[in-house]
Amino acid sequence: MIVEYESKSSAVHRLDPRVKFAWMFAAIVISVMWTHPVYLILLALAVVGFGLLAGFPWSKIRGVLSFMIIVTAIITLVQGATYVPKTVTLDEPARVLFHLIPSWIPRVGPACPIRVGGFLYGIGMALKVVTVLVVVAIFGFTTSPSEIVQIIARVPFMPYQVGFVMSTAWKFVPVVQMQMRTLMDAHRSKGVDFEQGAFSEKIKKTSGIVLPLFANSLSMADTMALAMESRAFGSSRKFTFIRPYRMEPFDWVVLIGSLGAMVASILLLAVFKLGAL
Amino acid sequence: MASDIISLKDVTFSYKGSKRCALDGITLNVKQGECVAILGPTGAGKSTLACVMNGTAPRFMDGSLAGDVTVDGMVPAKVGTAQMASRVGLVFGDPDTQLFGMTVEEDVAFGPSNLGLGYESIMERVGKSMKDMRLSGLERRAPHRLSGGQKQATAIAGVYAMLPKIMVLDEPTSMLDPEGKARVFGIVRMLKEQLGVTVVLIEQEVDDILNLADRVFVMRRGKFVLSGAPREVFGRVEELRQAGVRVPQIVEFGTLIGAAETPFSIDEAVSAVGLPCSSTNEVESRAPSAHDGHDVHDEQDDVVVEAVDVEFTYPGGARALDGVDLAINRGDFVAIVGQNGAGKTTLTRHFNGLLRPSSGDIRVLGRSAQGVPTIELCRHVGYVFQNPDEQLFCTSVQEELKFGPTNIGADPAVTSQRVEEILSDIGLAKYREVWPKYLTKGERQRLALASVVAMDPDVLIVDEPTTGLDWVESLQILDYLEQLRDKHGKTIIIITHDMNIVSLYARRVVVMARGRVVGDGAPREIFSQPDLMELACLRRPPIADLSQALWGEVLLTPAEAAARLLAAKSQAAGVCSE
Fold first, then answer.
1. Same domain, A209 and A114
2. Which one of A173, B19, B206, B246 is most buried, counting C-beta atoms within 10 A?
3. Is residue B477 part of a domain?
4. pLDDT for B578 beyond 70
5. CA-CA distance, B109 to A208, in Å (whole number)?
6. In the predicted structure, residue A129 carries a pLDDT above the cut 50
7. Number of domains comprising chain B
8. CA-to-CA distance for B177 and B205, rounded, in angstroms?
């Protein structure tokens, strides 16, 4: 996950996980369908509003966003320079907005024209990418792995153990990472320098960690399995989730709003081309 | 009369490929509501016994079980672990491997949820468990953000929420700081006295068991070698020692002074002393201490490692060190103590460059460590990690010892000679070709320590050298460290929660709390400051409490206290005869 789950009591955190999943699904579908930047900005604003309601820690995605802004700027310029007029329905898609190499540069300028259609298409693409990223981050921030297990477990014919094993494996990842860091520290303390040497040497040094990491992880997994079974894991076909799903009015508002917006955007795009460039 | 809820008759368990029986003809009957303590050295078969009671042996352990095992009217091996879970709750030593929820509430609910109970029933059980285990208010907290004691309390609450009639706790305090241990023992007392749960407690902390268990069983090599009421078992001092179990300090004191009746509490010990005709407080003479401390610290001024106004903040923003100033002198034996999360490990990892200060400076052998890589610093400062399995990488004991010296370019001939000496010193010469994984935990811990000693550093930092070890193994490790200090002039820094170890070996104690050094002095000085002990959530050994009660001063070992008493008595006898 881009942002780790945090246990909070915001209105979004309290939503039924299925509703949160429906919201994420609808937002991704809409952002994929729409190409017009104005519409995508409206969608992005709605997503930001949802994030504010959830108390989303925007600073935690600053790094990813900075990187994405660079990527999207490149996408915008590449699209602006290479667009195909037929892909958009604007009146003047071919109108040149500016040149990447301006006219005041002797001999080569003006060159590399950035056209209106391509530029807007590029901005739309960039907005799509950032919106999807933020939507997934908000979902991860507000939905605990155990809620995700509950979503999976409610898939017809799916044993709850499958979802639980997936969730446990997910939680196991940081534990293994910590083990790896400790093993590397223990190697460093015995004079192993992972930074020095040729590539093959580095591989050889790193491989020294693999065996103990594997052995320790297996041993830990074994203990966890024993502890899980000691708490009756698998003793009954039924697993009672401690947060029974009772759809509250706000759940219905978000669910109907999300799915309604998705259906409406599909219809309006199909009939009136709303949302398209 | 209560009936037997646990009945084991002539039970034998052998691990596949092992010639020795882990359990060898065990017979045990436990009545409902009883609290039974099982003691013994590592490898005695205690954990195997616990696993037999809930069916994890042989289910999870490759081996063969013989004899009759009946627990709450069921045969665990036939019924299966998961089905036994609502009758027998098993709690392990490491809380991190038994917490499964994203929140404390979810974790406590895990067991009842697996039983398929209704939502209302589960929440009722969760609420009661959390209240009984004093976890109320932590419902929404992520388990990994709890203290060690809170984590173990959560693990116990998770088992207790399944309403088992029996709870088996397998060394539940082995990884906890003194505050966490006190919390867990408080819970065990409550389970026994208020909730009527039958408790089987496997422990090494004999001082706490003394007044907690109804009956005590001592195991050795798969057999019970001693059993009976605590007073009966702990009174047999020599047999306890032979079995590799530490004798409770108050009992040891009673034996040393030749008390007619063995004392089992401080009050009983005070009565047993039989105060002489004049106040013993007036007596000046005192037996030589275990360690008066600062013998090296005061006399020498050869600083080997030093932290100068060191601050450290982890990438996530957690401030771990907050302006630490500390200088360690050559040849000293220093114990760094404090609650979990006080900053002990973070500080010592700075000394060999595994961590670098956010501000301030680390000095090694008088030179700033700034910019000096760990590969250089490790020649002077050796670091032994808490878990031996995280620092043993080679396929034989001998290779393991050569690994470090080879990496730092030591002379192969000198290395070979040193490896031979070390193998002999740590008693592992006969295992030189053995894969370290096949050694016992105590042997692996000794090997991990020796693998760093082989690099011949000036300073040895050993993080929690006795975790998971029995008393005899702990003494072997500490004796070896003392030998390295005395014979080879090494400076020893240990991080420990074990105040008995501190009393016996440390010359200097550095107390840390909330990322700062809050106390620094000889063990006697530190144990004499109740406010400091409380601030750092430490518990001094019982003998310190007893000597404080008797003479108003802190003594560190039963031998020291006994010598003090005998000196006081003989002086008082002289005064009376005059």
1. no
2. B206
3. no
4. no
5. 40
6. yes
7. 3
8. 12
- B361 shares a domain with B263: no
Q: Taking residues B267-276, report their average pLDDT.
A: 78
Question: A188 and B354 in contact by Cβ < 8 A?
Answer: yes
Q: Range with the lowest mean pLDDT among A50-64, B140-154, B250-264, B317-331?
A: B140-154
Residue A38 and residue A65 share a domain: yes
Q: Taking CB atoms and an 8 Å limit, are A240 and B119 in contact across chains?
A: yes
The helix/strand/coil state of B497 is coil
Q: Which of A5, A212, A226 sits opposite B389 (nearest CB)?
A: A212
Q: State whether B279 and B176 are in the same domain.
A: no
Integer angstrom CA distances of residue B368 from A217, B301, B359, B375, B479? 37, 18, 13, 15, 32
* Same domain, yes or no: B210 and B63: yes
Give the residue among B288, B332, B380 at the shortest CA–CA distance from B505: B332
The answer on A264 and A174 residing in a single domain is: no
DSSP-assigned letter for residue A85 = G
Q: What is the mean pLDDT of residues A119-124?
A: 82
Within-domain flag for B535: no
CA–CA dist B61, B533 (Å, integer): 42
| CB contacts, 8 Å: B389 with chain A | 212, 215-216, 219
**pLDDT tens sequence across B149-197:** 788 889 999 999 998 999 999 998 887 888 888 888 998 998 989 888 9
Q: At B323, is the secondary structure helix, strand, or coil?
A: strand
Q: Which residue has the tokens 């404090």?
A: B338
pLDDT tens digits, one per residue of A77-107: 887 777 665 555 566 666 777 777 887 888 8
Residues B149 and B186 in one domain: yes
- CB contact (8 A) between residue B392 and residue A212: yes
Residue A240 placed within a domain: no
Q: How many helices (H) and strands (E) does chain B have?
A: 24, 19
- Between CA B272 and CA B280, with CA B274 as vertex, the angle to 5 degrees is 120
Q: What is the dihedral of CA B136, B141, B146, B152, to 10 degrees?
A: 60
Q: Model's pTM, two decimal places?
A: 0.77
Answer yes or no: is pLDDT of B265 > 80. yes
Cβ-nearest to B114 among A9, A236, A244: A236
CA gap B338, B344 in Å, rounded: 7
**Is residue A61 situated within a structural domain?**
yes
Q: Verify that A75 and A148 share a domain, yes or no.
A: yes
The answer to whether B119 touches A268, Cβ cutoff 8 Å, is no
Residues A108, A186 share a domain = no
Determine contact, residues B296/B332, Cβ cutoff 8 Å. yes
Q: Are residues A83 and A214 in the same domain?
A: no
Contact B547, B568 (CB under 8 A): no
**What gap in Å lies between CA B24 and CA B14, rounded to an integer?**
8
Angle between helices A37-54 and A17-33 in degrees, nearest 10: 160
A148 and A50 belong to one structural domain: yes
Q: Which residue of B has its CA nearest to A186?
A: B391
Min CA distance, B381 vs chain A (Å)? 9
Q: What is the ipTM of this complex?
A: 0.82
Quick one: B214 and B156 in the same domain?
yes
**pLDDT digit string, tens, across residues B453-498:** 999 999 999 999 988 888 999 999 999 999 999 999 999 999 999 9
User: Residue A118 sits in which domain range?
Assistant: 17-152+245-272
Contact criterion met (CB below 8 Å) for A115 and A126: no
Residues 6+ apart with CB under 8 A from A170: A145
* CB B385 within 8 Å of CB A186: yes
Does residue B225 lie in a domain region?
yes
Q: Supply the range of the domain harboring residue B205.
A: 4-244
Q: Could you tell me if residue A7 is inside a domain?
A: no
For residue B207, the model assigns a pLDDT of 87
| Pair A114, A65 in one domain | yes
Total of domains in chain A: 2
CATH number at residue B206: 3.40.50.300
Residue B27 within any structural domain of the chain? yes
Least confident of A115-119, B287-291, B411-415, B558-562: B287-291
